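[step 3/7] inverse_fold.run input=structure_tokens len=225
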């Protein structure tokens, strides 16, 4: 409030102001409680400042900037099975608004359990707050795989040729021997080794070694002329 000087002053033709310079005493701007939603007010010279907390913004903390609050969002799930499908259950996340406004919840699975074939699946839940358009999401992935295959050791004096794509869905390998080497008698060197959903190799996990050597038989003939 004015405690000294002129209440009004006029700029004269000579460029000077008439009257005397006014002086104002401190005024309690916060007495009118300008800060909304129970936020704190601080007086400053010629005004006030609202200290906005709890998801509020604006000069008077009148703007709702609080997104939905989420709890119990599941982590990624990696499940192994020897079957072609697997039933998986997960936790449904919770969404709340500290400002007690309504939320619009959406999800891509209507229930929290499903039977999945082998593959990768994205699960999503989202909460939209119509009051301010803010969205909070719970996103996680479910991976269904067969049991992993045991690593095959290289055969002695030989090599392995295996598929190098989608190996987490199974593998198949063929082996061969280096030059001048062969497998033992009675062993089929052209047989494939296959690993399926159980993680076990057929016909087995032991690759025969190429421990035998080819023998060159030279026959000599003599002719009497």
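[step 3/7] decode complete -> sequence:
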């Amino acid at each position: 409030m004015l405690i000294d000087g002129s209440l009004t002053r006029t700029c004269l033709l000579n460029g000077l102001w008439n009257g005397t310079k006014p002086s104002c005493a401190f005024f309690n701007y916060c007495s009118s409680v300008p800060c909304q939603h129970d936020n704190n007010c601080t007086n400053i010279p010629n005004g006030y400042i609202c200290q906005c907390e709890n998801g509020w913004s604006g000069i008077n903390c009148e703007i709702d900037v609080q997104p939905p609050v989420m709890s119990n969002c599941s982590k990624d799930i990696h499940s192994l099975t020897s079957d072609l499908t697997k039933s998986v259950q997960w936790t449904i996340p919770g969404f709340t608004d500290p400002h007690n406004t309504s939320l619009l919840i959406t999800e891509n699975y209507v229930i929290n359990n499903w039977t999945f074939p082998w593959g990768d699946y994205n699960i999503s839940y989202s909460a939209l707050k119509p009051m301010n358009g803010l969205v909070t999401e719970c996103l996680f992935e479910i991976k269904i795989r067969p049991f992993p295959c045991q690593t095959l050791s290289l055969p002695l004096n030989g090599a392995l040729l295996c598929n190098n794509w989608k190996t987490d869905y199974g593998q198949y390998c063929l082996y061969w021997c280096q030059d001048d080497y062969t497998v033992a008698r009675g062993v089929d060197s052209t047989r494939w080794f296959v690993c399926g959903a159980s993680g076990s190799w057929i016909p087995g996990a032991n690759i025969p070694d190429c421990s035998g050597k080819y023998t060159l038989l030279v026959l000599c003939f003599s002719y009497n002329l």
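[step 4/7] annotate
The chain is about 0% helix and 40% strand.
The two ends are 144 Å apart (CA to CA).
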